Amino acid sequence: MAVRSFSFAASLIVFSSMIIASVADYGNDANPETGTLIPIAVEGMIMCKSGDKTYPIQGAKARITCVKTDDKGKEIAPISILSNPSDAKGYFYASLHPSQLPMGRYVTKCKGFLHSSPVHACDFPTDENKGIRGQSLHSFRFVADKGLKLYWLKPFFFTSEPTFY
Known about the structure:
Structural class: mainly beta
Shape: elongated
CATH topology: Immunoglobulin-like
Strand content: 35-45%
Number of domains: 1
Number of helices: 1
Low-confidence stretches: 1-24
Mean pLDDT: 80
CATH class: Mainly Beta
Number of strands: 11
Order of helices and strands: HEEEEEEEEEEE
């Protein structure tokens, strides 16, 4: 009985820490050497899925939306940024520097969304990999030479025909 209670308590602690980590702040980590806030960047791919064919879309954009909070954790307002247009391989990149926010403001609960496709034959967004509902930013790697946290989103897809959900 005591072992079962301990096991349950340990599981509860691990689960709680996972929830806390999932609502992490994205723009309030400071560089230990300089004390400056570390910018975040998001990258991913935007593709067209037409029938059984899939190909990259050049010139497509993604939107990154976060919740702006104050230093006490109170949610203030959403903030959105658009990615640069995707390249010939469908690759997009967007960055948010803490200096773009007023002092004492941070971003939390960031998600990536499909925004636009310049290809009229493939401009209907799909919710594959949460392109419509929003894909949460959760995994990152620190890019030391650029001094930023780089998040990667799963590929987003537009299609040639509307999809109804």
